[in-house]
Design brief:
Ribonucleotide Reductase, subunit A; 8 helices
Length: 264
């Protein structure tokens, strides 16, 4: 009976993965078709040249962080496509690698037109290395798609709300949809992978999650010098986000039968 339930769950997950593949193809977009030259790149500010420059630098730091994240996502998505042994997954990852490359292209063009890169996020670099260096596809899917891409969606919405009528908001709205698909596909694929993997790999996922969490909290709290002035103003928001994200990760772990302990 248990075997039949497991097989049925795997079939349902494979069908869901195929649906996400079709959805990803339908939602594909072209960077050149964004509203370049028709709307502002980032929110524009009145006032002295120094004030406008500070605000521009703040937005450039936001874009830099997103570019950095998608540079890592491009590399991991290629790893996933190479490592996947299931036909439905290989098909899906053919779209995800294109998505991540498109995201990187969009952020690259935006940061170039907005004035150039700012200080990189050191904790994001460490999180990215953790995913890239993970030994198994189960660990990579868990960290990138199930965890990070699920958690970043509210962040895209928050940026878009803070920058209405801009190219920045336009890109964030696109990525809210794309990363929602990536997250859903990752959850579906993990439902195929984990039931057939070893106990050792499951324990590694639990240990990686515990190791990841303090770095993720530091990533949320970190502010580059261009955004240092808003750090104190965002304390309550950051604390609420960390609490919400922690609850989300713990719920996902429980859904997959994993025992995860997250210590800030």
């Amino acid at each position: 009976m248990t075997t039949n339930i497991t097989e049925n769950a795997a079939i349902a997950a494979a069908e869901a993965l195929h649906r996400f593949y079709g959805l990803a193809k339908h939602q594909a977009w072209d960077v050149k078709n964004l509203s370049w030259g028709k709307i502002a790149l980032v929110p524009e500010t009145s006032g002295s040249p120094a004030k406008r420059e500070r605000r521009q630098a703040l937005w450039r730091s936001v874009i830099t962080q997103q570019l950095q994240a998608d540079e890592l996502a491009v590399q991991v998505s290629v790893q996933l496509q190479t490592a996947s042994s299931d036909a439905e997954a290989r098909l899906y990852y053919s779209t995800m690698t294109q998505d991540e490359a498109r995201h990187y292209e969009a952020w690259s063009r935006l940061i170039a037109e907005a004035g150039g890169l700012c200080e990189p996020d050191p904790y994001l670099m460490k999180l990215g290395k953790m995913v890239l260096d993970a030994n198994s596809i189960e660990e990579k899917v868990w960290l990138l798609q199930v965890t990070f891409e699920g958690l970043v969606i509210p962040r895209f919405r928050q940026i878009a709300m803070s920058a209405p009528g801009t190219i920045l908001a336009e890109i964030c709205n696109k990525l809210t949809i794309d990363d929602g698909i990536h997250h859903g596909a990752g959850v579906s694929y993990e439902r195929i992978l984990l039931p057939r993997t070893t106990t050792r790999i499951k324990r590694r996922i639990e240990k990686l999650s515990a190791k990841m969490w303090p770095l993720y909290v530091q990533h949320i709290l970190w502010r580059p010098r261009e955004r240092a002035i808003v750090g104190s103003l965002m304390q309550d928001y950051d604390a609420a986000m960390i609490h919400s994200h922690k609850a989300s990760v713990l719920k996902l772990a429980d859904d997959f039968g994993l025992s995860v302990d997250l210590i800030d």
